[in-house]
Amino acid sequence: MSELSFSKTNEQRAMLDSNQRIVDKILNYAETLDFINIQILRKFYATGLAFPNDTQPHVFSLLYMDMKNVHRIPIGMEALRKRVDFLVSIGLLEKVERSNPASYHPVKGLEQSARAVIKRFMMNHGLTHI
């Protein structure tokens, strides 16, 4: 009987360690990313719609036009491409391989973590709207 409780305790510790690593990663990303990176993440993860429409894939050229014209973010096409590629490299976005034009989509299973990064960034900088 004590062996069973010992096993359960180890499982609980492992889960707490895993959760702590996720929280640490979220806090690190919220401190590392800048406003433009967060705006890009919002385009993918903060649609404001209910599941299963709570995320949005984007074709790069349309993402660029939306960021430039609708959100009035002064960014060049190559600068946006580098920022999106950075978000892909840290695992917050996925690039669709062999697509022309380049297409990106949110990572399945990371929706809540990505939203937590966005929310934490907004809280850190005194912004209220997600």
Explain what the structure shows:
- It is a single chain.
- With 130 residues, the protein is mainly alpha-helical.
- It has a single domain (2-124), classed as Arc Repressor Mutant, subunit A.
- It has helices at residues 2-32, 35-45, 60-70, 77-89, 111-124, and strands spanning 58-59, 93-95, 103-106.
- A hairpin with a 7-residue loop joins strand 2 and strand 3.
- The protein is globular and about 50 Å long.
- The protein starts with a helix and ends in a 6-residue tail after the last helix.
The main β sheet shows up as: 3 strands, antiparallel
- Given this structure, which CATH class is correct? Mainly Alpha
Q: How many strands? A: 3
Order of helices and strands: HHEHHEEH
Q: What is the CATH fold-level name?
A: Arc Repressor Mutant, subunit A
Low-pLDDT runs: none
Across the major sheet, the strand order is: 1-3-2
Core attributes:
130 residues; mainly alpha; Arc Repressor Mutant, subunit A; 5 helices; 62% helix
Task: Quickly describe the structure.
This protein has 130 residues and is mostly helical.
SSE topology:
Elements: H1 2-32, H2 35-45, E1 58-59, H3 60-70, H4 77-89, E2 93-95, E3 103-106, H5 111-124
Antiparallel strand pairs: 1-3, 2-3
